[in-house]
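Deliverable D5.2: sample structural annotation.
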Amino acid sequence: MTNIILFSHGQLATGLADSCKLIIGENHFKVLNILLDQNIQEIKNNLDVMIQSFDDNQPVIVVTDIPGGSTTQTAIQRISDNKLLYVVTGMNLGLVMSLSFLSLSQDDEDNKNKIRDAIEESQKGIYLVNDVISCNDELSDDDDL
C-alpha cells in the first residue's frame, strides 16, 4: 500500500481514516490532526516525525484538507527536503481510497502521473446529484448514479 499521511484541521483525518478502514479494510495511514491547543512549531515537528517514520527511499503522499490552509502550507515546506514527498490537497474519501491503491516507485514523474490520475478520477465523483436526477426521468430505489 501507499505511504499516506492524512493531515487536517480538527478530527477530519481521523474520521476519514476510519471510513476508509470500514470500506477497504485495514489501512496503513498515518493521521495528523491540528488541534486548537497546538502551536505551529509542534505541528511542524509532528509532521516531520511522521514523514521520517517511513523508509527514506519510499514515496510518501501527504493529503491535506484545504488548499492554502495551514496543513497544506506546512506540508509544502517539506517538499524541498524530500524528493519523493507529494502533497495533495482537497481531502475526501474517494481521493484517499484512490491514492491508497497506487503503487509508487522511485520514478518521480511516473509517481506524479499516477497521483494526477487518482485526483482526476476522484474529481469525477464530485457533482450535484440533483443534476443527474433531472437528466433521468425517474430513478427507482435500485438505480445507481
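Annotation notes: Helices lie at 12-24, 40-52, 70-79, 93-100, 108-123, 129-135. The mean pLDDT is 91.
The annotation will be released with the project's public dataset once the embargo ends.
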